[in-house]
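Weekly modeling sync, notes
Attendees: AB, CL, MP (scribe)

Item 1: holo prediction request
CL wants a bound-state model with pyridoxal-5'-phosphate before deciding which constructs to order. AB pointed out that an apo prediction alone won't tell us much about the pocket. Agreed to run with the ligand included and paste results into these notes for async review.

Input as submitted:
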Amino acid sequence: MVNTAHEMPATPAPPASGWRVPFVRPDLPTFDEIEPAFRESFASGILTKGPALARLEAAARTLTGAADVVAVSSCSVGLALGLKALRHLQADTNRREVILPSFTFLAAPAAVEWAGYEPVFVECASDTWTVAAAAVAAAVSPRTAAILACHTFGCPCDLAALSALADRAGVPLMVDAAHGLGTTLGGRQVGREGLAQVFSMSPTKLVVAGEGGLVATSSPAFAGLLRELREYGNDGDYDCSLAGLNGRLPELSAALGLASLSRLPAVVARRQAAADAYLDVLHGTPGLGFQAIPAAATSSWKDFSITIDPDAFGAGRDAVRGRLAERGIDTRAYYSPPCHRMPAFSRHHRADHALVVTDALAACSLSLPMGGHVTPAIARTIATEVLDSRR
Ligand SMILES: Cc1ncc(COP(=O)(O)O)c(C=O)c1O
């Protein structure tokens, strides 16, 4: 299942002293590309709710094929407002719980709480590291309000199985698609599946707006609620019936996001080349594991992560991290600790409900530098440093 298309092998150059590879470097358009839109904004004085926002939303609708896309100030705000809209629609029900993976970024359970729901953490699959459909099925109850999956590290979650489960339970499927711009399934950009998928345009993502989020939805009515909620909950008459917040995306960010979106195919291709180079060196090494990308899918490679079995590899995750840091290579231990063990959320987790795969992944996964600054040659050098860290 792992994509291992190779490039011409190149001998990695030994790192010179002072060699540094940041974990991420924003993949920005040139200033010339965004200058006309910035000039338009400055000339018109329109800094919010203007033509750049409309152009970005239209481009994202075309890309995702979703019925509508609502741009917001961040993915976190998009998740919180999306769930808040759902809470409004479910106000007369006992549906209070949102099922989500624990092996994910903390913004998801935080949004669940902001919207007035309780997170129910479930297990992820040991191969794709995305939420396990069987675990979601086992957690569904009459109190279930929604399923909130995630395209973890850019690998699409099991949209077919989760959509079927959500339909059977009579609840919506939403996706934390923060890593999903550049992720495809069946040859198409993800985003049209489920009730809503929420993308991020923060500096660590493939499409960068400075900060920003895009909520792609299959429901025009839901999009209307989101537009009201991102505007304090004001539907225009200043007689608010729905508590929202200021979740607007400024024009300058929308213009940057739009220019960045147009570069997405090239950005994905560079990440794919880096992932191929990492795999070229590391795949087959005893003790190392890789995220399995389903055959019909491609990853955005928002992150390239490996797992390290200390006994079989000869060094543990933290030792490898330390050695790479000494060599100027910046890494992350995503997602350690997992959400169900964080002080903010652990009270929602039942002690008798072990998340064995999640805990194991959190203990041994390591995310390596990824982005336009990681050329295939640099990826090979980093991979060689990973192997050398056994000494
Ligand atoms: C999986 C995931 N969800 C949500 C977010 C939050 O996105 P934002 O920073 O746009 O709020 C992030 C940010 O990195 C993320 O990685």
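Recorded for review: The chain has a mean pLDDT of 95.
Action items: CL to compare against the apo run; MP to circulate these notes.
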